Amino acid sequence: MYHKDFYITKEVWNNAFSIEVRPHKELYVPALKKINSFSELSLLQESDNKVTFEEFDFNDTMQTCFGLQNLYEMNWKWKPLYLVDNHTHVMYFWYLARSQGIISDNTLLYHIDEHADTRDPWVYLMKPDSEDLQKVFEYTNFTLNVGNYIIPAEKEWLIWETIQIRGQNALDEYNWWRYFHLESDGRSIILNLDLDFFEPELDFIDYNLKKQVILDVAKKANLITVCTSPYFIDQKRALKVFKDIFWT
């Protein structure tokens, strides 16, 4: 799956947001590209005319967003890392990793994000369907959206517990907690990072503290998924932060 790019043309996925009044009625999903160097990362330009997200902001201004040129697969310290634009896509890569034996059911999810992403879609994958990657792909891209992909993974027991890190207090609590809980009881771990955690309105939280916690979780994780959130953070800023954290 994700072997080639495609468009979401129906009123599903992230394309359901305000579609009746949006100027663009379809959203672009780029193909997955495996890379060996972070220098291969690139962004879509407005001239490409490939909109990856579109919605009104809090000032009722329509925001037309352009994300990554591709979805990217790479390795970080010998573990798989997937970089996507819209956070929904990570759902598929979690199940892909399970099918490859990289993670297992009852995984511990560290969700580092400005948003909780825990709305309930009220439509779930059952265990037999979750083992069919084609069905997972279709569910990810034609049912879910950026705000509701975690609950289905919990309902299906892929995720045992989600630890939300969304602000200063949670970062401080993690730093206290990690000295007393250095193991995960043998459970596999996913680091699920949204780079909107570095958008300008959150600059009051110390950058180095954010980076330190992210890297600490990343070192323990079996799988890393990261999104650039084109609607919530400037994409050049997002890639700059991503490279600063992981290009080590």
Which key phrases capture this entry?
single chain; 248 residues; alpha/beta; two-stranded antiparallel ribbon; globular
Give a description of the structure:
By secondary structure, the chain is of the alpha/beta class. It has helices at residues 90-99, 127-130, 133-142, 150-155, 168-178, 207-220, 235-246; strands at residues 6-8, 27-29, 32-34, 53-56, 62-65, 71-76, 79-84, 107-112, 159-165, 189-194, 223-227. It has a seven-stranded mixed β-sheet with strand order 3-6-7-11-10-8-9, sandwiched between helices. The radius of gyration is 17 Å and the shape is globular.
Structural topology:
Blueprint: E1 6-8, E2 27-29, E3 32-34, E4 53-56, E5 62-65, E6 71-76, E7 79-84, H1 90-99, E8 107-112, H2 127-130, H3 133-142, H4 150-155, E9 159-165, H5 168-178, E10 189-194, H6 207-220, E11 223-227, H7 235-246
Parallel strand pairs: 3-6, 7-11, 8-9, 8-10, 10-11
Antiparallel strand pairs: 1-2, 4-5, 6-7
Rg, alpha carbons: 17 Å
Please report the distance between the alpha carbons of the first and last residues: 30 Å
Secondary-structure element series: EEEEEEEHEHHHEHEHEH
Total strand segments: 11
Number of helix segments?
7
What integer is the average pLDDT? 94
Quaternary state, please?
Answer: single chain
Question: What are the low-pLDDT stretches, counting only 5+ consecutive residues below 50?
Answer: none
Strand content: 15-25%
Strand count, sense and barrel status of the largest sheet are: 7 strands, mixed
Report the helical percentage.
25-40%
Structural class: alpha/beta
Strand order of the largest sheet: 3-6-7-11-10-8-9
Instruction: Sum up the overall morphology in one term.
Output: globular
